[in-house]
Amino acid sequence: MALKPLVILVFVGAMALMSVAEAQNTVGIVHVNGTLYCTADGSPGPNETATPVFSNAAVQVACSNDVVFNSPSNATSNGNGVYLVVLLPRPSPSIVASVVSNCRLFVRTPLSTCNPSLPSAALVSSLRFVRSVQVGFAWITYMVATGFTLQA
Ligand SMILES: *[C@@H]1O[C@H](CO)[C@@H](O)[C@H](O)[C@H]1NC(C)=O
Ligand SMILES: *[C@@H]1O[C@H](CO)[C@@H](O)[C@H](O)[C@H]1NC(C)=O
Ligand SMILES: *[C@@H]1O[C@H](CO)[C@@H](O)[C@H](O)[C@H]1NC(C)=O
Fold first, then answer.
1. What span, in angstroms and rounded, lies between the C-alpha atoms of 105 and 74?
2. Buried b (16+ CB within 10 A) or exposed e, 43-57
3. In the chain, which ranges are continuous DSSP H helix?
4. Most CB atoms within 10 A, among 18, 20, 59, 118?
């Protein structure tokens, strides 16, 4: 009787699952990385090599809407100001878009920690997709901060 609609439904369901699996496969885990500088907006300024870095800063990516398994995900900037936060996104048909729209990168350690003349405030930035790279059977998707602003 209702065999045809059922077959169509199963077929549509299988297509949806496949596209989810495919989206997950080409995104994999997300690496959010960069270098923090000890400036009013955490950016290098005009002379990158002359700008002091912000070491030992607590960095965190926090997401709304449960798009990432391990949110909030934490890291600390190293002696060169370099940080790497790893995110494990939940499968969805548009993982990159949902991570970009739901997740923010925070610098929780106040700027004044690296230079007392800077504000005693945290920083926040949106994320930007850079590229997805295949590593063996897995994928790594790179994202970076779009630019920090002081967090009120
Ligand atoms: C982030 O990591 C990638 C891959 O290791 C590297 O090519 C890139 O230069 C890093 N970005 C920053 C801002 O450190
Ligand atoms: C940047 O700073 C370095 C180290 O202080 C200096 O050697 C270099 O000349 C500066 N570059 C510019 C373009 O000002
Ligand atoms: C990151 O740190 C916060 C506290 O600032 C903690 O609640 C959270 O569980 C940590 N995240 C992970 C993945 O350990």
1. 10
2. bbeeeeeebebbbeb
3. 3-25, 95-102
4. 59
Q: Does the predicted TM-score (pTM) go above 0.90?
A: no
Residue nearest to atom 6 of ligand 1 (CA): 33
**Residue ranges of domains in the chain:** 3-151
* Class of the CATH-defined domain 3-151: mainly beta
Which-ligand-closest: CA of 74? 3
Separation of CA 62 and ligand 3 centre (Å): 9
Element (H, E) at 88: none
pLDDT tens digits for range 1-45: 555 665 555 555 555 544 555 544 689 999 999 999 999 989 888
> Ligand 2 within 6 A of 117 CB?
no
